[in-house]
């Protein structure tokens, strides 16, 4: 699941990237105009941006407010004091305000809650058989998913970034008999070299520098469900 992040403060951006990229596919943009284009064209589930940085440019801010009104995505807005039209959006749209001093792990919790809501919407659509495709190639992909959905197999999805591999992995999970078991997503490209094994199999306190607590591995967390290893190449 992709997150687009606009944060001009490099130190805060780096901290957010290091924490969030472990579980999500992140795209950072440094330009307001590019951020607006991402909202218009991207299929990202969540957008994070620094509202205080945007206040300096009222024209772009008004444009982004309009885009939020018409976007199905969730927005996490970092701000010292939200006001005006954006504050009103919080009541009727998927907008969450967080303070600039929010910790990386607190932000991760907010994102997990929001993406859980996105996931719930995907499950609802699938349960109501609303998942529709138009192209013959996608129909063929779904046909193959139905062939393997209840088999104990390794399934490989290939394609460029942003083509929907994560969405298809979730479709496979939801169509299978494992649908009520966990779906665990791990972005392997975001794991530092030498720590992938620890993420997959877990570790105990003191196993290496920085291991301050015991941590369950992704394989164990998935249990009898599905684990999706993203960006394995």
TrEMBL record:
Top-rank taxon, per record: Bacteria
Coiled coil: none
Keyword Manganese: no
GO molecular function, one term: ATP binding
Record carries keyword Nucleotide-binding: yes
CDD domains reported for this sequence: AAA (cd00009)
Domain Sigma-54 factor interaction: 131-233
Gene Ontology biological process terms, A to Z: regulation of DNA-templated transcription
Keywords of this entry: ATP-binding, Nucleotide-binding
A Pfam entry, by short name: Sigma54_activat
PANTHER family: C4-DICARBOXYLATE TRANSPORT TRANSCRIPTIONAL REGULATORY PROTEIN DCTD, TRANSCRIPTIONAL REGULATORY PROTEIN
Name of the protein: AAA family ATPase
Organism this protein belongs to: Caldithrix abyssi
């Amino acid at each position: 699941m992709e997150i687009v992040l606009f944060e001009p403060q490099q130190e805060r951006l780096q901290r957010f990237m290091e924490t969030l990229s472990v579980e999500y596919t992140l795209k950072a943009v440094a330009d307001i105009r590019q951020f607006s284009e991402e909202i218009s064209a991207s299929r990202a589930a969540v957008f994070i941006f620094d509202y205080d940085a945007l206040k300096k440019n009222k024209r772009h801010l008004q444009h982004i407010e309009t885009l939020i009104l018409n976007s199905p995505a969730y927005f996490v807005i970092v701000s010292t004091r939200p006001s005006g039209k954006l504050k009103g959006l919080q009541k009727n749209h998927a907008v969450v305000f967080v303070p600039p001093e929010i910790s990386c792990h607190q932000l991760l919790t907010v994102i997990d809650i929001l993406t859980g809501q996105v996931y719930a919407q995907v499950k609802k659509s699938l349960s109501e058989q609303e998942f529709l495709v138009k192209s013959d190639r996608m129909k063929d992909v779904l046909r193959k998913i139905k062939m393997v959905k209840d088999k104990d197999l390794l399934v490989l999805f290939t394609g460029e970034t942003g083509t929907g591999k994560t969405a298809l992995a979730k479709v496979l999970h939801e169509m299978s008999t494992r649908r009520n078991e966990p779906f665990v997503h791990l972005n392997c490209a975001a794991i530092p070299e030498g720590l992938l094994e620890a993420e997959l199999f877990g570790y105990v306190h003191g196993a290496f520098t920085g291991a301050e607590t015991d941590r369950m591995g992704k394989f164990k967390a998935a249990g009898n469900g599905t684990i999706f290893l993203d960006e394995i190449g």
